[in-house]
User: Fold Cytochrome P450 2K1-like from Hippocampus comes.
Amino acid sequence: FNQGHGIIFANGDSWKEMRRFTLTTLRDFGMGKRLSEEKIIEECHFLIEEFEQHKEAFDNSIIMSYAASNIISGIMFGKRFEYKDKVFQEMIERDHETIYMAGSVAILFPWLGPYLKTWRNMMHNVDITKQHARNIIAELKETLNPYVCRGFVDVFCTRMKNLEHEIQKLHYHDENLLNSVINLFGAGTDTTGNTLSWGLLFMAKYPQIQQVQEELSRVVGVRQVQTEDRKNLPFVNAVIHETQRLSNILPMAILHQTSKDITFQGYFIQKGTAVLPLLTSVLYDETEWETPNTFNPSHFLDEEGNFVKRDAFLPFSAGRRVCLGEGLARMELFLFFTSLLQRFRFTPPPGISEDELDLKPVVGFTLRPTPHRLCAVRRH
Ligand code: HEM
Assistant:
């Protein structure tokens, strides 16, 4: 894919350095804190404006990805894109397509890969995405100002310029920058966007769960929801967790490789063996969840209606490779979801019943909802 550069497909010292650098930089730019909260709230306004323009049923999935993408773009490039921007639209659609193709047989059995059309198409897509990212990075490099730091790319470029130790020069180079940017853009867009789209689909399918709105009206009213409201919104919180559990967006997490011979639960696994952590096995575990195959927010509520954490809730995976954007993603899911539900009720298009809304996913590298349309009906 990218010869081990960047974060997702990197290993060893380079991965360690890039992961550490990315986490520190994301935190400096407010991941999980006030700064990203402000960015997300600003984006909520654009999202609501966009939803309001649709007087009839529409497919919200690509719009949700635009919103999610603008958050990670803001952190990386210091700017958001207009939803009408053709280049931005193409970037997201290409990303969608690449992630879909990445789940196909050609990728899961890579030795067949080069002979298959899907593989060639995907690599073609990756090349165009790289070129777009190169253009954005080049523009940022040209306008780099040591006194104004716009985002991740500026921090990386400044570090590249100022490196003194040979050992660091090994890691801070253009290929690592390019691939980290592509990884963050891809990881930060599709996952969050699709989860939000699943959330709205569940709302339309199970109108009784729009009890979310009753809780929002009672606790928050019409003012802007803030992250700190979450602790007073146990039902909303449970619905978001249940959405993540049931939508099972990354069923196989990301392909890894054992770095040494190991015996795990009595099985010997040789160094270099490909390992796929099957998140489905824990998110749908019959011994952990009362009704593993149905949407049931009570999985995250006690008898008094308080929110309860569950150990088997692992949509971000676990361990050293756990999702690096978890804090940001959780904040986005909460603020986008609540801001939309404060203003809109989601229903199937006229003539279609709730039962007819299809929950079968489109299977790619991620599980996304089958293309569908919903009405966003203004509540006030
Ligand atoms: C609902 C949203 C999200 C979900 C469900 C999710 C889930 C995951 C999962 C399951 C992994 C693989 C962990 C493993 O390999 O075992 C992962 C990795 C990763 N995620 Fe996320 N993610 C989300 C949002 C984000 C966001 C917003 C970002 C951007 C900051 C992000 C950045 C990454 C990166 C860079 C990795 C690779 C980490 C590494 O290999 O060290 N993710 N994510």
